[in-house]
Amino acid sequence: MKVLLFGASGNIGRAIAEELLSRGHSVTGVTRRGVVKGLEHERFTAIVGDATDAGTVASLASGHDAVASAVGPAVGRENDHEIIVGAARALIEGLSKAGVTRLVTIGGAGSLEVAPGKRVLDDPNFPAMWRANAEAQSAALGLFRNSEQLDWTYVSPAAHIGEGERTGAFRVGGDRLLTDADGKSDISYADYAVAFVDELEQGKAVRRRISVAY
Question: Record's InterPro entries (predicted)?
Fold first, then answer.
């Protein structure tokens, strides 16, 4: 496949790009500076683009088989709502104009349920620095769920995502936060990327949210 990847320079975006390339796909990585440091591959091209602009999304997506979004602002330093919700709106509008229907996008863990009607972010002890991001991710999910044009999938990670090995061994769930026997919820960037690309290739969860954790 020819995949357009927004947010290719972040930790998750880079992991997704590397996973896509390892499976033989061609990747166009979109960043605000047009650079993904240290990632050089004959099937990878880095370009400049703004995921919050529908016209840019439409122009760049044309000719691609699918679009992946790993757009995520720097927590505490950027406007979470403007970037996350803005990107969701632009992707919905722009991909419709481009005639590209398949979208897989990263999502936050904050909107996952821990009990019926109770989300992770509803906990009064939810970290303040992550609240705006989690609320914006939840709003973006709502926009995708109301979209009739896209075959989207929203991929939420575990409560904690970070550096680690690519094991290929993890669980895939739905709207509920996945935890292990000790109550921990973790996933590595690499294994999250495996689950993300699995879904992009297989399309088992079209128009719904999935979650990934060990």
Answer: NAD(P)-bd_dom (IPR016040), NAD(P)-bd_dom_sf (IPR036291), Polyketide_Oxido-like (IPR051606)
In contact, 29 and 93? CB cutoff 8 Å: no
At 130, which amino acid appears?
Answer: W
| φ/ψ of residue 102, rounded to 5 | -90, 120
Q: 10-24 as b/e, with b when 16 or more CB fall inside 10 Å?
A: bbbbbbbbbbbbeee
Q: Which single residue is written with the structure tokens 């989300």?
A: 119
Beta carbons of 58 and 6 less than 8 angstroms apart = no
Task: Look at residue 200 and tell me whether its pLDDT is greater than 80.
Answer: yes
Residue in 4, 18, 9 with CA at minimum distance from that of residue 190 = 18
- Cα Dmax for the chain: 48
CATH architecture for segment(s) 2-213: 3-Layer(aba) Sandwich (3.40)
pLDDT exceeds cutoff 90 at 77: no
Residue 141: alpha-carbon gap to chain centroid: 11
Domain locations along the chain: 2-213
CA 114 to chain centre: 21
pTM of the model: 0.96
